[in-house]
Amino acid sequence: MTTGELMTLPARRGRAQRLTKGHSIKIINTHGQQVVDTWCFSAEDLTEFMSMEHMRPTIGRLWPRKGDALHTNRRRAILTMVEDTSPGRHDTAIAACDTYRYGLLGCKEYHDNCTDNLRAGMRQLGLEAPEVPSPLNLWMNIPFAADGAQSWGEPLSKPGDYVILRAELDCIVAMSACPQDILPINGKACKPTEAHYQVLG
Fold it and tell me: Which of 84, 141, 154, 178 fits 35 for a cystine, CB–CB 3.0-4.6 Å?
């Protein structure tokens, strides 16, 4: 793709994009209700990747906001969130959905899932993800009560909301338009939709 070209992240599917240090990716919630599971791997070594459990103690919050650096499992900044037009509610606690998760939700046949979408997106670049880290779940609203109880909220974002993530290292950003259609994480209609993205210089 060329810089600035608007690319489609199809509903229920995954894509991956190489980023050079200093360049950014703009991820757009086109219809306002779509969760986008997002990963980032070092281009030099895929065993170094954006890590939610390493990021949280570094930024001191459950989810990042504008200006926060997103850290790897080696505690280096790999991305910085330079812009966020949404209310800023993103999730860093929930693992990517997979076939086992949908089995627990009652699915008897194969269900599209973010784990397979990550692998498929990376393979489009000729790469194999060494593992499936917990993603930054953009726009996923997971409320926690004072007693620690967790619930499944609907996104607070609106159509056209976006985040811009700047690469602090040469890296690969992978994205999945989450296929969840049983719980209301993609809105009360439980209907996954496409999102879009652009590489910015």
Answer: 178
